[in-house]
Every structure is written in structure tokens, then in C-alpha cells.
Amino acid sequence: MKASSSALIVVDVQNDFCPGGALAVPGGDEVVPVINAMMPEFQTVVLTQDWHPSGHSSFASQHDGKAPLETTEMSYGTQVLWPDHCVQGSRGAEFHAALNTDPAQLIIRKGFRAGIDSYSAFFENDQKTPTGLLGYLQTRGVTSLVMTGLATDFCVNYSAQDAARLGFEVTVDLQACRGIDLGGSLNEALRDMKAMGITISA
């Protein structure tokens, strides 16, 4: 029997984050069959989708003299600058073709405000602007979350930590995640998640 109080959150399994994409996560496409196999176990399945307008402020191309993966200071804090990726309406922004999207009851698009990036499924990077996911999960009676997708050390990490702060019981399934690992960011993310009481399932 599917647990009605638990939800599967599938983070940003999009072409640009998979091999050949503009911001490819190593082995990103390997999560697809794992996630597809998990979906029937959940009554509530939510997909998130990075959805940037052209010229988004988090793109290195919008900052003179800056290269991808360098940082800059925004009004909301330090921001990693990325290659142009997941631009609205582009093939790169589409979900991976093999991802089974049919079981998803909700797709949360994030990063669509030009002036602020959004890693978390719950809040944009100012940690204040909500995506609406919290209210949806609460009205569905969801109390625990299993987090999957891309990338472990960025959008999955931020989503999991926000979920824990909001009172959800959170598990991150590493078999269904892949990381970027910028200068040790993967181990740092895992350490921070464990410190918040998030279960890391290998």
C-alpha cells in the first residue's frame, strides 16, 4: 500500500543537467531508471523544473569578466555563476525524455524570476520567496519526503535542508541523486544534511 503521508520529490531531472547538457552533472542520466522505479511506491509525486528566462542574473554571461563557476555577490548573498542553462522553452529545460512524468501530480517551476536564482524546491535563494510547495504538501497531508534528482550538493541539498527546517522527515536517496562536487561541495552538503537530521540513504 502506498503511504499517503510520504511524497517523492524529483529535483531538476532536465536535459541541461544530464550528459551533453549545458550544465551536465556527471552520470546525471543514471538517476532516471532509479526514480522511475520508485514512483509507484508514492501517492504524491512532485517534479521540480529549473525554468530561467534568457539573460538570468545567475548566468556568467550576464557579468562582464566573470566565468562560469565563479561567484558574485547578489542582494541575497553569494551566488555561483552558471553557464546559460534551462532557459524557458529550450530543449535543455525539458525533462529527460526517459523520465516518467505521468505519475507527477505537481510540477514546481523555479528560477523564473530574472533577478534571483532558486536552488530549493521550497524557496528562492533569498530564503524568503516561497514556491508554493509547502502549502501543497501540507494540504495533501504529507509529513515525510524522499528527495531525488540533480544535483545532490545544490538543488537537492537546498531542498532537503529547507524541508527539514519546515518540519518534514527527510530522506535523501543517493542512488537516485548525482552531484556536481565543486571544490568538495558534495561532502560538505552531505555533512550539513546529516547535521540537520536528514537521513542519507545509500
Task: Explain the overall architecture.
The chain has 202 residues and is an alpha/beta fold. The protein has four helices and eight strands. The protein has helices spanning 31-38, 133-139, 152-165, 185-195; strands spanning 3-11, 42-50, 71-74, 77-80, 106-110, 144-150, 169-178, 199-201. The strands form two sheets. Strands 5-2-1-6-7-8 form a six-stranded parallel sheet. A two-stranded antiparallel ribbon has the order 3-4. Helix 3 packs parallel to helix 4 (185-195).
Largest sheet: 6 strands, parallel
- β-strand number: 8
Tally of alpha and pi helices: 4
Main sheet: strand order: 5-2-1-6-7-8
Rg of Cα set: 16 Å
**Class of secondary structure makeup:** alpha/beta
Could you state the order of secondary-structure elements as H and E? EHEEEEHEHEHE
Helix percentage: 10-25%
| Shape designation | globular
